[in-house]
Amino acid sequence: MIFDLDGTLVQTERLKAISYARAAVMLRPELEETAVIAAFKEVVGLSRREVALGLMTRFGLMEAAQARMAEFGVAAPWQAYVQIRLQIYEAMLADPAVIRRNQWPHNMALLQAARHTCDHVALATMSYCPQVQRVLQILELEATFDFVASRDDVELGKPDPEIYHLVAHELGVAPAECLVIEDSPAGVQAALAAGMQVIAVSTPFTRQRLHESGLLPDNLIVDEPERVTAVAAAIVQETV
Asked: What is the pLDDT of residues 110-162, one digit of tens each?
Protein backbone atom coordinates (compact mmCIF):
# COMPACT_ATOMS: atom_id res chain seq x y z
CA MET A 1 0.00 0.00 0.00
CA ILE A 2 1.36 3.42 -0.99
CA PHE A 3 0.25 6.58 0.78
CA ASP A 4 0.35 10.19 -0.29
CA LEU A 5 1.24 12.59 2.53
CA ASP A 6 -0.21 16.06 1.99
CA GLY A 7 -3.96 15.95 2.36
CA THR A 8 -3.92 12.20 2.90
CA LEU A 9 -2.13 11.52 6.17
CA VAL A 10 -1.90 15.11 7.33
CA GLN A 11 -3.94 18.20 6.49
CA THR A 12 -0.82 19.92 5.26
CA GLU A 13 -2.79 21.00 2.18
CA ARG A 14 -4.79 23.22 4.50
CA LEU A 15 -1.60 24.64 5.99
CA LYS A 16 -0.12 25.11 2.52
CA ALA A 17 -3.25 26.90 1.37
CA ILE A 18 -3.00 29.27 4.32
CA SER A 19 0.70 29.90 3.65
CA TYR A 20 0.11 30.66 -0.05
CA ALA A 21 -2.77 32.96 0.90
CA ARG A 22 -0.78 34.88 3.50
CA ALA A 23 2.14 35.23 1.08
CA ALA A 24 -0.24 36.57 -1.57
CA VAL A 25 -1.60 39.13 0.89
CA MET A 26 1.94 40.19 1.73
CA LEU A 27 2.45 40.91 -1.98
CA ARG A 28 -0.95 42.52 -2.47
CA PRO A 29 -2.44 43.62 0.87
CA GLU A 30 -5.85 44.33 -0.65
CA LEU A 31 -6.42 40.62 -1.32
CA GLU A 32 -8.59 38.46 0.93
CA GLU A 33 -6.94 35.36 2.34
CA THR A 34 -10.16 33.40 1.94
CA ALA A 35 -10.21 34.02 -1.82
CA VAL A 36 -6.69 32.64 -2.26
CA ILE A 37 -7.46 29.62 -0.07
CA ALA A 38 -10.51 28.87 -2.21
CA ALA A 39 -8.44 29.17 -5.41
CA PHE A 40 -5.85 26.79 -3.98
CA LYS A 41 -8.43 24.01 -4.35
CA GLU A 42 -7.99 24.27 -8.13
CA VAL A 43 -4.23 23.65 -8.05
CA VAL A 44 -3.86 21.32 -5.07
CA GLY A 45 -1.63 18.33 -5.83
CA LEU A 46 0.40 20.08 -8.54
CA SER A 47 4.08 20.94 -8.32
CA ARG A 48 5.24 23.95 -6.31
CA ARG A 49 5.99 25.89 -9.52
CA GLU A 50 2.59 25.11 -11.02
CA VAL A 51 0.77 26.12 -7.84
CA ALA A 52 2.69 29.38 -7.57
CA LEU A 53 2.20 30.32 -11.23
CA GLY A 54 -1.48 29.48 -11.09
CA LEU A 55 -2.12 31.66 -8.06
CA MET A 56 0.10 34.49 -9.34
CA THR A 57 -1.83 34.62 -12.59
CA ARG A 58 -5.18 34.43 -10.82
CA PHE A 59 -4.43 37.23 -8.36
CA GLY A 60 -2.07 39.47 -10.32
CA LEU A 61 1.00 38.85 -8.17
CA MET A 62 3.63 38.89 -10.90
CA GLU A 63 4.81 42.49 -10.58
CA ALA A 64 4.97 42.46 -6.79
CA ALA A 65 6.80 39.12 -6.77
CA GLN A 66 9.25 40.36 -9.42
CA ALA A 67 10.15 43.24 -7.11
CA ARG A 68 11.20 40.73 -4.42
CA MET A 69 13.45 38.56 -6.64
CA ALA A 70 16.73 40.24 -5.66
CA GLU A 71 15.87 39.87 -1.98
CA PHE A 72 15.85 36.10 -2.32
CA GLY A 73 18.48 35.80 -5.05
CA VAL A 74 16.13 34.02 -7.45
CA ALA A 75 15.71 34.21 -11.21
CA ALA A 76 11.93 34.10 -11.61
CA PRO A 77 9.02 35.91 -9.90
CA TRP A 78 7.30 32.64 -8.96
CA GLN A 79 10.40 31.64 -7.00
CA ALA A 80 10.17 34.82 -4.93
CA TYR A 81 6.52 34.09 -4.17
CA VAL A 82 7.45 30.56 -3.15
CA GLN A 83 10.21 31.81 -0.83
CA ILE A 84 7.81 34.17 0.94
CA ARG A 85 5.31 31.37 1.27
CA LEU A 86 7.94 28.92 2.54
CA GLN A 87 8.91 31.23 5.39
CA ILE A 88 5.28 31.17 6.53
CA TYR A 89 4.83 27.44 6.01
CA GLU A 90 8.06 26.47 7.74
CA ALA A 91 7.03 28.51 10.77
CA MET A 92 3.88 26.39 10.90
CA LEU A 93 5.84 23.15 10.58
CA ALA A 94 8.15 24.29 13.36
CA ASP A 95 5.26 23.87 15.79
CA PRO A 96 4.76 20.12 16.43
CA ALA A 97 1.34 20.78 17.93
CA VAL A 98 0.12 22.17 14.61
CA ILE A 99 1.13 19.00 12.76
CA ARG A 100 -0.38 16.71 15.37
CA ARG A 101 -3.67 18.64 15.33
CA ASN A 102 -3.88 18.31 11.57
CA GLN A 103 -3.58 14.53 11.21
CA TRP A 104 -6.31 12.67 9.33
CA PRO A 105 -7.14 10.01 11.95
CA HIS A 106 -8.88 7.46 9.71
CA ASN A 107 -6.10 7.47 7.12
CA MET A 108 -3.52 7.21 9.90
CA ALA A 109 -5.43 4.21 11.26
CA LEU A 110 -5.38 2.64 7.79
CA LEU A 111 -1.61 3.18 7.66
CA GLN A 112 -1.13 1.33 10.93
CA ALA A 113 -3.39 -1.51 9.75
CA ALA A 114 -1.42 -1.72 6.50
CA ARG A 115 1.75 -2.35 8.46
CA HIS A 116 0.23 -5.64 9.63
CA THR A 117 -1.61 -6.70 6.46
CA CYS A 118 0.58 -5.59 3.55
CA ASP A 119 3.99 -6.86 2.46
CA HIS A 120 5.22 -3.31 1.94
CA VAL A 121 4.10 0.19 2.90
CA ALA A 122 5.51 3.24 1.13
CA LEU A 123 5.09 7.00 0.89
CA ALA A 124 4.97 8.99 -2.37
CA THR A 125 4.71 12.73 -1.86
CA MET A 126 5.26 15.91 -3.79
CA SER A 127 6.66 17.59 -0.69
CA TYR A 128 10.41 18.04 -0.51
CA CYS A 129 12.55 15.79 1.65
CA PRO A 130 13.29 18.17 4.58
CA GLN A 131 9.59 18.90 5.07
CA VAL A 132 8.69 15.23 4.74
CA GLN A 133 11.25 14.20 7.33
CA ARG A 134 10.05 16.92 9.69
CA VAL A 135 6.43 15.73 9.52
CA LEU A 136 7.37 12.06 9.86
CA GLN A 137 9.53 12.83 12.87
CA ILE A 138 6.78 14.79 14.63
CA LEU A 139 4.28 12.00 14.02
CA GLU A 140 6.81 9.30 14.97
CA LEU A 141 6.51 7.64 11.56
CA GLU A 142 10.21 7.54 10.63
CA ALA A 143 10.34 3.74 10.77
CA THR A 144 6.87 3.10 9.36
CA PHE A 145 7.62 3.07 5.63
CA ASP A 146 9.70 0.63 3.64
CA PHE A 147 10.44 3.38 1.13
CA VAL A 148 9.79 7.13 1.01
CA ALA A 149 9.79 8.99 -2.32
CA SER A 150 9.64 12.79 -2.32
CA ARG A 151 9.75 15.57 -4.88
CA ASP A 152 13.56 15.52 -4.65
CA ASP A 153 13.64 12.02 -6.12
CA VAL A 154 11.86 12.62 -9.43
CA GLU A 155 12.13 14.90 -12.42
CA LEU A 156 8.39 15.18 -12.96
CA GLY A 157 5.69 15.76 -10.39
CA LYS A 158 2.23 14.28 -10.20
CA PRO A 159 0.11 13.79 -12.33
CA ASP A 160 3.10 12.21 -14.09
CA PRO A 161 3.45 8.61 -12.86
CA GLU A 162 7.22 8.81 -12.35
CA ILE A 163 7.09 8.82 -8.54
CA TYR A 164 4.83 5.74 -8.45
CA HIS A 165 7.00 3.88 -10.94
CA LEU A 166 9.95 4.69 -8.70
CA VAL A 167 8.24 3.29 -5.60
CA ALA A 168 7.24 0.05 -7.35
CA HIS A 169 10.77 -0.38 -8.68
CA GLU A 170 12.39 0.20 -5.28
CA LEU A 171 9.99 -2.20 -3.57
CA GLY A 172 10.43 -4.80 -6.30
CA VAL A 173 6.70 -5.18 -6.91
CA ALA A 174 4.49 -4.97 -9.98
CA PRO A 175 2.40 -1.78 -10.23
CA ALA A 176 -0.79 -3.87 -10.44
CA GLU A 177 0.00 -5.21 -6.95
CA CYS A 178 -0.03 -1.72 -5.44
CA LEU A 179 -2.95 0.05 -3.80
CA VAL A 180 -2.51 3.81 -3.58
CA ILE A 181 -4.26 6.08 -1.07
CA GLU A 182 -4.55 9.60 -2.51
CA ASP A 183 -6.61 12.73 -2.00
CA SER A 184 -6.19 14.82 -5.17
CA PRO A 185 -7.01 14.38 -8.86
CA ALA A 186 -3.35 14.88 -9.78
CA GLY A 187 -2.30 12.11 -7.41
CA VAL A 188 -5.04 9.78 -8.59
CA GLN A 189 -4.10 10.40 -12.21
CA ALA A 190 -0.44 9.65 -11.45
CA ALA A 191 -1.24 6.36 -9.72
CA LEU A 192 -3.64 5.24 -12.45
CA ALA A 193 -1.09 6.11 -15.14
CA ALA A 194 1.40 3.93 -13.27
CA GLY A 195 -1.02 1.01 -13.54
CA MET A 196 -1.93 0.91 -9.85
CA GLN A 197 -5.21 0.57 -7.98
CA VAL A 198 -6.34 3.76 -6.24
CA ILE A 199 -8.64 4.92 -3.49
CA ALA A 200 -9.23 8.65 -3.20
CA VAL A 201 -10.10 9.94 0.26
CA SER A 202 -11.51 13.35 -0.47
CA THR A 203 -10.91 16.52 1.55
CA PRO A 204 -12.67 19.90 1.48
CA PHE A 205 -9.95 20.99 -0.96
CA THR A 206 -10.34 18.09 -3.39
CA ARG A 207 -13.86 16.65 -3.07
CA GLN A 208 -15.57 18.49 -5.90
CA ARG A 209 -12.70 18.10 -8.37
CA LEU A 210 -12.36 14.39 -7.62
CA HIS A 211 -15.99 13.72 -8.44
CA GLU A 212 -15.93 15.95 -11.52
CA SER A 213 -12.70 14.45 -12.85
CA GLY A 214 -14.23 11.11 -13.85
CA LEU A 215 -10.97 9.40 -12.92
CA LEU A 216 -12.54 6.97 -10.47
CA PRO A 217 -15.99 5.44 -9.92
CA ASP A 218 -17.85 6.87 -6.96
CA ASN A 219 -17.28 3.76 -4.85
CA LEU A 220 -13.54 4.44 -4.92
CA ILE A 221 -13.93 8.07 -3.83
CA VAL A 222 -14.36 8.05 -0.07
CA ASP A 223 -16.11 11.17 1.20
CA GLU A 224 -16.75 9.67 4.65
CA PRO A 225 -13.22 8.97 5.95
CA GLU A 226 -14.43 6.42 8.48
CA ARG A 227 -15.17 4.14 5.50
CA VAL A 228 -11.65 4.09 4.10
CA THR A 229 -10.41 1.00 5.98
CA ALA A 230 -13.41 -1.05 4.83
CA VAL A 231 -13.02 0.10 1.22
CA ALA A 232 -9.30 -0.72 1.25
CA ALA A 233 -9.93 -4.11 2.86
CA ALA A 234 -12.44 -5.00 0.15
CA ILE A 235 -9.94 -4.18 -2.61
CA VAL A 236 -7.16 -6.13 -0.91
CA GLN A 237 -9.48 -9.12 -0.49
CA GLU A 238 -10.40 -9.03 -4.18
CA THR A 239 -6.75 -9.24 -5.19
CA VAL A 240 -5.77 -12.04 -2.81
From this structure: 999 999 999 999 999 998 999 899 999 999 999 999 999 999 999 999 999 99
Does the CA dihedral 92-185-81-148 come out positive or negative?
positive
Phi-psi region of 154 (alpha: psi -120 to 50; beta: other; left: phi over 0): beta
User: Does the structure show a pLDDT above 80 at 191?
Assistant: yes
Q: What interhelical angle do 77-93 and 12-27 show, nearest 10?
A: 130
- What is 82-140 written as a DSSP string? HHHHHHHHHHHHT-HHHHHHTB-HHHHHHHHHHHHH-S--EEE-SS-HHHHHHHHHHTT
Using left for φ > 0, alpha for ψ between -120 and 50, and beta otherwise, residue 195 falls in: left
Residue 164: closest CA among 132, 206, 11, 156: 156
Q: Can you tell me the distance from the alpha carbon of 10 to that of 146, in angstroms, rounded to the nearest whole number?
A: 19
Q: Could you read off the pLDDT of 34-77 as tens digits, one per residue?
A: 999 999 988 876 788 999 999 999 999 999 999 999 999 999 99
Q: What is the pTM of this model?
A: 0.83
Helical H segments across the chain, by residue range:
12-27, 33-40, 48-59, 62-66, 69-72, 77-93, 96-101, 105-117, 129-138, 162-171, 185-193, 207-213, 228-239
Q: How far apart are CA 143 and CA 16, in angstroms?
A: 25
| Cα diameter, the chain | 58
Bridge partner residues of 197 (DSSP): 179
